[in-house]
Structures are given as structure tokens and as C-alpha cells.
Amino acid sequence: MATKKKKEILSNEFQFPKFNPVPKSFVPHYYDSISQFYRNHIAEDFNGMFLVAKNGEIVYERYKGTANYQFNKRIDKHTPLHVASISKVVTAIIICKLADSNQLVLDKDIRSYLPEIMYSGITVRMLLNHRSGIPYYGYFPYSIWPADKNLTNQKIVQLLNTYKMPLYFPANSQFSYCNTNYALLALIAERITHKKFPVLAKELIFEPLKMTDSFINDGSQNSDSLARSYDSRKRLEPFTNLDGIYGDKNLYTTARDLLKLDKATYSDVFLSDSIKKQIFRGYSYERKGKSNYGLGYRMREDKGKSTLFFHTGWWHGNTGCYASLRKDTICMVIISNHYTKKVFGINRLSTLFGNYPYEPLIDTKENFIKPNAAIRHMGEAVRKKKP
After folding, report:
1. What is the pTM of this model?
2. What is the pairing mode between strands 298-300 and 48-54?
3. Cβ–Cβ < 8 Å for 153, 245
């Protein structure tokens, strides 16, 4: 069982929870095993960040490779990398903090916050746990949104409405992971607070937690000077017309900043105990399996074992995983800006620290809606709209 956090001290400035010190025997006992894992499974051809922490204290970390070949920028502990769908953790926490402060209600219809959207019976919670059935914007055909025209969060809503795109399935009847859910959540946060999402993330999360190397990119920062994305052969992945959408992606951060976020999630000041119980639980049990999803966190559940909470990321050449082994207060982070599937094997380390399920982090069977069916579904809606 993890060492308990001591009673937190309230002050005007956020105080991280105080964990008991890491046992002196912990680091020497686990360091060699972690190091061996890194050497054997990660190090070769790796470009990115790798970190393991216990009770908020870093046990092992490595920074390796190139962030930007054009400007000869190396990756170090302060280099913000695009973490793709790991961004959803930050988006979910922002929404849950707004719920904590009574600025929104998770079980309220999203039309209370986005009155123009055509869908009824979908709640904020259903966006958070991917049970809305709303179509994925990445499948919009070029006939309605050209590849050379940048898509925005607000334009997603307009296109869904214009072409009356039907839900994939009745709301809350099943799970299917979809980036559109989190693009809409970012819009909802903006409507409630009257602030742009990157500003809101800075005020609610990055500044209080001193995540000084983190920011949300709204597309205006898409420049050659950023840490860029590369394929497995080190070829530059260009920005596309979907790279201005945020909420589902576009968090640039570091392994150390993600550790700060993980530490804060143990605090009853940062997130109430009530909201954390809603975040760290599963919502989709329509069929048997070990994969599940909370509010912004993926899960692996197995009877008799501790639950593994995590989120993977994959966008262009950026891949990564942030894992929170909450029973043992272990945080593991691996992120890369050069395409590699190595990052999805970090869960092998979880069994070193406790009785956690060892299941593939990329579960190709978790989505009910397959890409070909989704594209066909959307194409039919577009054709019906044409005169």
C-alpha cells in the first residue's frame, strides 16, 4: 500500500500534498530494474523523455535526442513536447475544477453551454467519458472542409450542424473514443469562463502548479521554432489543417511538469474528494474486458489487481504515455517527438511496483465504431445534404 499523504496546509498559494519521504531502500531496490528496462526497451534510437517517480520524488529520468533538427535543438528537461491525447487529462481536470466551483454541472445537457449544437440528451459527463456518440471531426471529407483550410473548434460545431451528422449510437449507450468530445469540452470551458482555453489552462493549472514549461497551442504558435514532430525515419511531419484544434490535443509539456500535475491530483484542495471519485472510476461496462475510461483517464481493470490509470497520446510523430499507479503513488511518463510504439510498453514497469494488470495500452478492440464505418456514416450524411 502506498505511503499516505500527510494533512495538507491551506494557504493562498497552492501547496502540493505532503507525502511521506520515499523509503531509503526504495531507490537502490528499484533503480537498477528501471535502468535495465530503459536500456533494454527504450534507449536505442529514442528521442524524448522518460521519468519514474515515487511519492512525487523522481527516482529515474532520462532526456535524449533532438527536439528540432532545423534549429539543432536538443531535448532536455525543460523542452516542451506535444503530448497529443495526454492533453485530455488537462482538459478533463479543467472541466472538473469548473464543476468543483459550481460553474458547470457534469450531468447537464451540453446545450446549456453550447445552445447552438444540434444534439440533445448529451451531458458534459458523456463528453468526458466518450459516451456521447458524436462523430469524429478527423473524418470530415475534403468536400466540406478542404485540406488547405484550418479547422477550428467552433467550425467543428458548425459543420456537425450544417450537415446534420447523426450520432454513431444513442447517447450513453456505449463507449467509443472520439477527439470531438474534448474539442467540445474546450469550447464549453471558454463559454463558461469567457476566456480562451490556453489562458484558462494557464490560470487554473500551469501557474498554480508551477508547470513553467507547459502551454496549450491554439495553432497560432505553430512555427518552425517549436519542438517538431518526426516519423520513425526522422522525416519532418508537417502541420496540417487539424493542428489548430485544442482540448483533445495541443498540450506542449514536459515529463517533470506532468509529474507536478500527477502530484496535484492527490490534493483535496486542487480537486475535491467528491470529484476525484468521479474521475477515477470506470463508466463503460457494456461488454467484458479490462479496458475502461474515467473522466479524462484511461484505465486497466482486472479482478484482484490494482487499477492502472493512464493516458496515451499519438498525433503525427508524437507518441507518449502518462501513467498514474495511484495505490502506490507511482508516476511514470514517457513522451517522444519521433514516432515510436516503444512508449506504449511502459506498463511493463507497473508490475515492478505492485499487483497491476499487464495489458496492452493500445487496445484496438475498445472502440465500437471502426474507421471505415465512421467515414461511411459521415459520407452518407454529407450526400443527403447535397441538393
Report:
1. 0.94
2. unpaired
3. yes
